[in-house]
Structure formats: C-alpha cells, structure tokens
Amino acid sequence: MAPPVPSSTDTRSRILDAAARLFHEQGFNATGVSTILREAGVNPGSLYNLYPSKDALLAAVLERYTQLLHPVVMAPVEAATADPIDRIFALLKQYRDWFLPLEFRLGCPIGNLALEVADSHPEIRPLIQQNFDGWCGYVKKWLAEAGDRLPASLDRDALAATVLTVMEGGLMQARSSRSAVAYDASVAQLRSYIDLLLARASGERSRG
Amino acid sequence: MAPPVPSSTDTRSRILDAAARLFHEQGFNATGVSTILREAGVNPGSLYNLYPSKDALLAAVLERYTQLLHPVVMAPVEAATADPIDRIFALLKQYRDWFLPLEFRLGCPIGNLALEVADSHPEIRPLIQQNFDGWCGYVKKWLAEAGDRLPASLDRDALAATVLTVMEGGLMQARSSRSAVAYDASVAQLRSYIDLLLARASGERSRG
DNA sequence: TCAAATCTTGAGCGTTCATTCAACCATATC
DNA sequence: GATATGGTTGAATGAACGCTCAAGATTTGA
C-alpha cells in the first residue's frame, strides 16, 4: 500500500492548490507565505525545498494555469456547442456563471495577477502573457473555423483579442460594482457586433 | 511673505502626490508607508495627523482622482474635437499616447486598484465605482449628443460601458505583452462596430 | 541491509510593516 | 506676554514578513 508517487508530489500539489486559491482570493502581495503553509498543512522547509522563493511559487501557479486552460476552461465550452461562434459566447457565459454566485468577488485569476505583478516581476510577465496567448489561441481557432460566415476583410486575430478584452474589461467593472450589468452590456455589444459581421458576410456570399 | 495657506495644505498635497504616484507605479500593497513618507519628505506623525491609516490615504487618493477626472482626462479630449463620436476615440487615443512611451508599464491607476483592493477593502470599492461611473458618464453624454446618428434601438449605456471595457481590457493585455497590439486591435474592432452602427442609422434615416 | 539521497520538521533569523506618542514648534487670539 | 490650537518631529512599538538551516525522518538503489 505504498503511495504510487513520491510523497513530495502530494506536498507539491497541496502547496499549489493553496497558493493558487489564496493568490486568487487575496492577491499575491496580500497573501503571506505563512498563510499558504497553514492552508496547505506544510512546513516552511518543505515549501522552500520545492520552490526557492515565493516568486518561484507564483511562477509554478501560472504554469499550472496554463496546463489547466484546456481541461478546465475550454473543454466544457467545446462540449457545450460545436458551433464556433456560439463557443465564444458560451465561453463568456461560463465566466459569468462562475463568478455571479460570488457577486464577482474574485475576478479572473490571471487578470488580477497581470495588473498586480506584471511590472514588478519581469520573470512572471511572460507566464501571464502565455496564459492570455493560449486563451486567445482557442478563440482564433474558432474564428478560423467560422470560415466565410465572417467577412473576408475581418482581422480575426484582432477580434480574438477583443473577446479577451471584453471578458477582462467587463469582469473588472463587474468586480467594482458587484453587479453583472457592465459585463452583460459588454458581451451584448460584442454579440451585436458579431451579428452585424455575420449579416454582412451573408450578404457578400449571396451577392457572389 | 507668509504662506497664503496653512502649511498642512502643502503637506497634504505632497503626501497625496507621492501616494498616488507610488500606488500607481507599485500597487497599494507593494507600497510601504515609509516609502511614501520619504518621497513626500514628511514624517510619520504628519501623515497620521492628516490620515488615520494607509487605507484612509488610499481613499483620499481615489477622491482626488474623481476630482481630476474632468480637468486631466476629459477636458483635453473635449478640446481636441467637438464631434461626440470622435471624442470617444480621442479618449482612447489619449490613453494610448500616455502609456506607449512607458511601454504600457503602469496601466490605469483606477483599474489596477480595482483588481487589487476591491474585495479586501469594502470602503474603497465604492470610490473605484465612482471613478468608473464618472468616466462612463462622459461617454454616455457624448453618445446622447450623437442623436440619430446612432440607431434608436441601440442601448447607449451598454455601449458606454463597452468603451470602458475596451479601454481597461485592452490596457491589461498591453501591460502583459508590453505592446500596443491588443489595445489597438480592440479599439479597431470598436471603431468597426460603431461604423456599422453609424451606417445602419444613416440607412434608417434615409429610408424613413 | 546499509548508505545515499530526498524530503520534512519547526524554531528562529533579520527585516520591514503600519502605527503610536510624548515632546517640540509655529502661529493666532486676547 | 500668556494661552490655546494645530502641525511636526522621529525614535520606538509589536506584529508580520519572507526565508534559513541543522537535525531528523523516510525513501531509494545496490
């Protein structure tokens, strides 16, 4: 009945779980290492055996977010609908459903860190960028799959970036107001914009 | 040659200047009171004579941002152009011009605080909300002034919130990538959307 | 079975944190 | 010139910070 993995794997994941949760709930600077240790049920030496510093732990948390992007964020959306345009709005709805029960109290874990540590931690910023790139990558893929349903002249990479903009900007306002209205408003305008694009492309197709 | 105002006015503004700059550059939690004191050239007793706590100082900084919103942010835009639609994009361009020279290193001072302290400081969140409301208020006014150049069916409050969404979401990505591309892309999509709305309204006017 | 390697323990390190306060100074009022 | 008021001084506070390390426990490999 020996454990199938070295015990440090369990320690590592307990630390990562606690750190990710606390960084999300309280922010990076506001979270003390001692709190992470307590919540993970681990002693300082164990943590510093695995990670040389609190900054390195943050890097590991962001690496894990990258790994979890598809299984946690994108897979449910892809399962919900096969239509590429619908997937965009399913993704935006998923975030709404996640954060509405908490009255938008936590916000996007990546976005929070982006604004808190992007300037002060040069080695962290690329990891945040990597998460955003991955996120946008899925939206770009969907927009490519939409084919000629969208105008040929449309800059699809720009639209993908705008979807992330809507998500993060809308969520920031939702957090500030503890209300969904600005988030919903932004998503509705994006819906309206994409509907106009779909209509224009449809017209272009029927005209030749 | 006696100073025309009590000396505490000067102390107060030196503290507010230093605190606002440091909160913007480093964030709230990462800024020590001792740093504010040093940069303001003030002793702890003077600060705590004016503000009972670091949190109260943050509140004062946010009050001042509210006061400065028109003279610093909106007045230059209103001076740049009288056209209400152009003003929206002049506003977005002004932020770009402010932050491009720093490679988007600092970001929006309000937005940064929104994500850092909205949850943990209940008395601060309304002040952030007040700043966002003021900002959106000007955009709403411009959209109203656009009259029937925009479709009657358009939800103008929702579009105003979306302008702020584009600004904050775009700036977040710009900070993460140290590049303007996602910001520019988001603004370009907004431009494209509003052009479609203007064209539709124009068609509606000419048809009836 | 034993030595080497790996992981865990937890008291304690030096530093920095936000904040306090008794004493001191400058001006205004009478 | 005495008194009151408001502002300033800056050393000192206890708590919390990120982190260390010698010692012990456990696992690994031969």
Description of the molecule:
The structure is a homodimer of 208-residue chains. In chain A, 75% of the residues lie in helices and 0% in strands. Chain A has 9 helices and no strands. Chain A has helices at 7-26, 33-40, 44-50, 54-80, 84-99, 109-117, 125-145, 156-177, 181-207. In chain A, helix 8 packs antiparallel against helix 9. The relative contact order of chain A is 0.10. Mean pLDDT of chain A is 95; it is low at 1-5. The interface between A and B is large, with 50 and 50 residues. Chain A binds a DNA duplex (30 and 30 nucleotides) through residues 2, 6-8, 11, 32-34, 42-50, 53-54.
Name of the CATH class of the largest domain in chain A: Mainly Alpha
Distance between the termini of chain A: 70 Å
The overall pLDDT average of chain A reads 95
Helix content of chain A: over 70%
Largest sheet of chain A: none
Tell me the Rg of chain A in angstroms. Answer: 20 Å
Series of H and E elements of chain A: HHHHHHHHH
Number of strands of chain A: 0
The CATH topology of the largest domain in chain A is given as Tetracycline Repressor, domain 2
Largest interchain contact: A-B, 50 and 50 residues
Name of the CATH homologous superfamily of the largest domain in chain A: Tetracycline Repressor, domain 2
Please state the second-level CATH architecture of the largest domain in chain A: Orthogonal Bundle
Briefly note the structural class of the backbone of chain A: mainly alpha
SS element count, helices of chain A:
9
Give unreliable regions of chain A as ranges. Answer: 1-5
Q: Can you tell me the overall shape of chain A?
A: elongated
Strand content of chain A: under 5%
How many separate domains make up the residues of chain A? 2
Q: State the assembly state of the protein chains.
A: homodimer
